[in-house]
Specification:
Layout (H helix, E strand, L loop, with lengths): L17 H13 L6 H14 L3 E5 L2 H11 L7 E4 L5 H9 L3 E4 L11 H7 L4 E5 L10 H11 L2 E5 L7 E2 L2 E2 L6 E5 L12 E5 L2 H10 L8 H5 L20 H12 L1 H19 L5 E2 L15 E5 L8 H10 L15 H7 L7 H9 E4 L7 H15 L2
Parallel strand pairs: 2-3, 2-4, 4-5, 5-8
Antiparallel strand pairs: 1-9, 6-7, 8-9, 10-11, 11-12
Helix pairs in contact: 1-9, 2-9, 3-4, 3-7
The structure holds pyridoxal-5'-phosphate.
């Protein structure tokens, strides 16, 4: 059997090339670090990549989700339906605008929002549906969009995992009303911290751009560059959510290698599938619908906790002792203290999410991983759980 790995394999370590490093240095030398020409180029390239009319670069996906709900005028008394199998940020932004997060359960195979559960959760107060393309697998956008259109509610997508995903051939970011991407350090495209919001509606894009930078009428590039002096006006008490040129420098080159990085993760994914198919204690991710494209952000396995002789948390601890870092995506959000206490959510309300939340763990899947790293991960899982 393969020996224990000698150094710790960090979960989600990004693949950053020499070109990215050189471009960041060039940005530092350019004298313009803030929101400027590189952000504009990154937005243009991203718009072309997903095929949306508008793209607004921001400092996070969370900022994008917040601004999307804010620009839609969602606030106190309104409800937004979302998944409890997600990161805290997805529901936190609903609270930030003063609205009520309403959870609906996921499908056990896709781990995405179950459209029937969404339909059952809609009320006269619902203003938006906020799906997450879990792990990079596109949601059933036909079902969610037709539901939303029938009830005249918006669809705001959390595409933090899904930059390269396509539903029935169409890129995520070109389908819903507003879509938010994350460029956080562990995500498929990395800018350190960063995000992008795409939409086809000019009025939303304009409002969001203004609100992302204090709500003022002209950004700093236009105020201080050679284009000449322009006084600014405050149109809205906005936020400080803009992306900087330093981040866009990384983003431009990360976008250029997005497809080749995806191909590497697809290779690692196939190797994990091959290694763990039929393992008596593990359930591998469901195959992707051949009409869709999975962005391969997270390789999540489910542990059979009834027969493994250990909990998922014990497994993760033992993998750490084998020098393998893993992630947990996610523990059921409705049972987190704030949501359980504030909205009286209880165990048993979303059984599929709870089942997944107790069993799921994610293996390293970065494009930075070598084939040797992947073999180390597989050997460690086998040492802990048996062949
Ligand atoms: C990472 C993540 C976010 C937040 O992204 P940031 O860019 O860090 O704000 C939101 N939703 C999901 C599902 C995520 O995984």
């Amino acid at each position: 059997m393969r020996e224990r790995r000698s150094n710790f394999l960090v979960f989600g370590s990004p693949a950053i090339g020499e070109e990215e490093i050189a471009e960041v240095v060039a940005t530092l030398r350019s004298g313009w670090l803030g929101t400027g020409p590189r952000v504009a180029r990154f937005e243009k390239a991203f718009r072309a990549y997903v095929g949306s009319a508008h793209a607004v670069a921001l400092n996070s996906c969370t900022a994008g989700l917040h601004l999307a709900l804010n620009a839609l005028g969602i606030g106190p008394g309104d409800e937004v339906v979302t998944t409890p199998l997600t990161f805290s940020a997805t529901a936190n932004v609903i609270v930030h605008v003063g609205a009520t997060p309403v959870f609906a359960d996921v499908d056990p195979q896709t781990m995405n929002l179950n459209p029937n559960a969404v339909a059952a959760a809609l009320t006269s107060r619902t203003r938006a549906i906020l799906p997450v393309h879990f792990a990079g697998r596109p949601c059933d956008m036909d079902a969610l969009l037709s539901l939303a259109r029938r009830r005249a509610v918006a669809v705001v997508e959390d595409a933090a995992h899904a930059t390269e995903a396509r539903f029935r051939g169409r890129p995520i970011g070109s389908l819903g009303d507003l879509t938010c991407f994350s460029f956080y350090v562990t995500k498929n495209l990395v800018t350190g911290e960063g995000g992008m919001l795409t939409t086809d509606r000019e009025e939303w894009a304009d409002a969001i751009r203004i609100r992302s930078l204090h709500g003022i009428s002209r950004d700093a590039w236009k105020r201080y560059s050679a284009e000449g002096f322009q006084p600014y006006d405050t149109l809205y008490p906005g936020y400080k959510y803009n992306m900087t040129d330093l981040q866009a420098a990384l983003g431009l080159l990360q976008l250029a290698r997005l497809e080749s990085n995806l191909a590497i993760r697809e290779r690692h994914w196939r190797r994990y599938d091959e290694a763990f198919t039929g393992h008596p204690l593990l359930t591998i991710p469901a195959p992707v619908d051949p009409r869709d494209r999975h962005a391969r952000h997270l390789y999540t396995l489910l542990l059979d906790v009834d027969h493994a002789g250990m909990t998922r948390n014990e497994l993760v601890t033992r993998l750490k002792a084998e020098n393998i870092g893993t992630g947990i995506h996610f523990t059921a959000l409705h049972l987190h203290t704030y949501y359980a206490q504030t909205y009286c959510y209880r165990r048993g309300q979303f059984p599929v999410t709870e089942f997944i939340g107790e069993r799921t763990f994610s293996l390293p899947l970065s494009a930075k991983l070598t084939d040797e790293d992947v073999e180390d991960v597989i050997a460690a899982v086998r040492r802990v759980l048996g062949p």
